[in-house]
Amino acid sequence: MTEPSAPSITGYHAHIYFDASTLAQAQALCEEAARRFALSMGRVHQRPVGPHPDWSCQLAFDTPLFGEVIPWLALHRAGLVVFIHPLTGDDLRDHRDHAIWMGAVRPLKLSIFSGEPEVAEQ
């Protein structure tokens, strides 16, 4: 019996979560990551955006950088929650089934991707 083929991963997003008390820390972390690695730093959102329950900043990077960016974030996040997911073209599965968490697992608002309940636990 053959296994179904896994989806192709075209890149990753790492979402750095923060609040008013850790805004400067999160911004500095994201800016340093953008300086060190060939990745794109998104806006520093001071409100929940999309499925994310907290304020966040997105770091987008290509698959070959995973082995550099993720260990660096693990060592430098200093208590910030980091949510990482692959990009396969299936947003719901990428955020729900393929998620990687550093720190506390936070409830995502997966209903934006499908008929999921308004807030689904990870």
From TrEMBL:
The keyword Oxidoreductase applies. InterPro entries: DOPA-like_sf, DOPA_dioxygen. Keywords: Dioxygenase, Oxidoreductase. Gene3D superfamilies: DOPA-like domains (3.30.70.1240). Transmembrane segments: none annotated. Coiled coil: none annotated. GO terms for molecular function: dioxygenase activity. PANTHER family: AFR070WP (PTHR36423). The keyword Oxidoreductase applies. It comes from the Bacteria. This is Putative dioxygenase. It comes from Collimonas fungivorans.
